[in-house]
Structure formats: structure tokens, C-alpha cells
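Example record

The entry below shows one chain as it appears in the dataset: sequence first, then C-alpha cells.
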Amino acid sequence: MFLALLAIIFVVMGIKIVRQGYNYTIEYFGRFTTTAKPGFNFFMPFFYRVGRKVNMMEQVLDIPGQEIITKDNAMISTDGVVFFQVLDASKAAYEVSDLYNAILNLVTTNLRTVMGSMDLDETLSKRDEINARLLMVVDGATTPWGVKITRVEVKDIRPPIDIVDAMARQMKAEREKRATILEAEGARASEILRSEGEKQANILEAEGRREAAFRDAEAREREAEAEAKATQMVSDAIAGGNSQAINYFIAQDYVKTVAAFAESPNAKTILFPVEATQLIGTLGGIAELTKDAFGEGKSGTTVVPGRPPRSSQ
């Protein structure tokens, strides 16, 4: 019974149950021999023991806030966070004394180096570049420890109050500048459009005047042609022995003269230099000439100015 009890105790002491997400390092008289994976493991008691219990899950480590002087001598406050995962439990347990403290100090010093080599404007606007540079440097430094740095993020960057006020004034000035430029461009575009409109209006007005002048010239040409035709007809009538044709020119000038008297704004009374019957007789001669021209005077009737018409018989 005693031996059976000792055997049971020996077996129980040799059983090692490893939780999921962890790896245990197994030491043989203080020297690392192997790594126990999650699940059931058995090692000889008294000879083998668990050295370190290493967390193999991805972990988060906060970077405390610190003061950093940038390239242009501006003091800023910043903090961050780093994500890492242990890939090799033996290296993480035996290649570095304090893994968490080592990663924290490594990220802190490299954060100072990276942000200290940049201007203030660059640190505020190029966070992705800062994160990428930190990730590359820190991951390369932690590779011998069996650790993979998966992500480094700068959480907050706080410039001094006076710099923040200066940046706010600069932003306001830039926005006012852009507003002024936009207003000037709008006024310029408006003037250009107005000038273009006036130009088009002048062009259309000139084209209208040209068309009107062309129409007037055409009307005068037609009038001149009609006048020439009428003069030719009168001349032909005079050449044919019709003495009444000369009355056409006399009556035309007479009518124009009388019209000029009538249109005078100061004329209250119009005195005709000849009797009205003479004007009627002249007009009668014109009518006779018109009838002769169009063949309507073949009936033998003769019209004499100032007298009633009589037959040629």
C-alpha cells in the first residue's frame, strides 16, 4: 500500500497541465530542455520542473506620456500603445530578463528618436509615418527575443498652449486668405461674364444696324428704280407730244413746297403763291398723264387744267 501510494504521488507530480494560450518551459536540473504545449504533459518529477509560464497571446502594452523636443525645438507631450506577441517561449524566457520592461523602454527611446528628428508640423500630420518607423525599428530589435511587434500607435500628441493658439490663428488667417481669393475670383468671373455679355450685345446691335442699313439701302434702291421708271415714262410722254407730262414735275415740287409750309411749327396761316385751282389743274394733268400711260385715255376725252373735261370731237 505504501509503495502504491508513492507511485500515485510520483505520477501526479509528473503531470503538467498547460492552459490554452500559454507555453511552459521545462528545465532539467535548472537547464532548459523543452517547451510544454497546451494540454496534458508528463515529465519525471524531481528531475524536471516548470521554469517559466509564457503568455503566447497577443498583448497590449501602454507607453506612458513623456515630453519630447522636436527638430524645431518645440516641446510636445505624447503617449502611445504597442501590440506584441511571443512566438518563441524559450527566447522570451531566457534571452531577456524582463520582457515587458525591455519592450517598454525600447519603444520609449525609439519614440523620442523618431519624433525628435521631425518638425512640429510633421509630427502632427504624419502619424502613419511615425507608427511605421517605430514598428520597423522596434520589431527588428525584439526579433532575438522571440517577440513579434504587430503594431505601434501614437495615441495623443499635445503641443504647448501658445503653439496651439498660434496654430489656430494661422488656420484662421489661411481660411480668410482662401475666402478673399475666392471672392476675388468670383468678382473676376462676374466681370468677364458681364464683358462677354456686353460684347455679344454690341455684336448683335451692330448686326441689327447693318441689316437695317441694308434694308434701307434696298428700299432706297427700289424707290430710286421706281422714280427712274416714272421719270422715264414722263419723258417718253413728253417726247410723244403730250404737253401734260411736264405737269408731273411741277406738281411734285409744288406738293413738296406746300408740305414744307404745313410742317412749320411757327406757321399759323399759309399763303399760297398761286390759286388752288392751278394745283388742281396740275393734278388733273398728272391724272391725264397716268391714264395715257396705262392706256385708259383712248376714249378721246381731253383734260385741261382748270376746265371741265371735253370730248375731242
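Notes for this example: The first strand starts at residue 15 and ends at 18. The helical segments are 2-14, 89-94, 99-116, 120-125, 127-142, 161-239, 246-263, 276-294.
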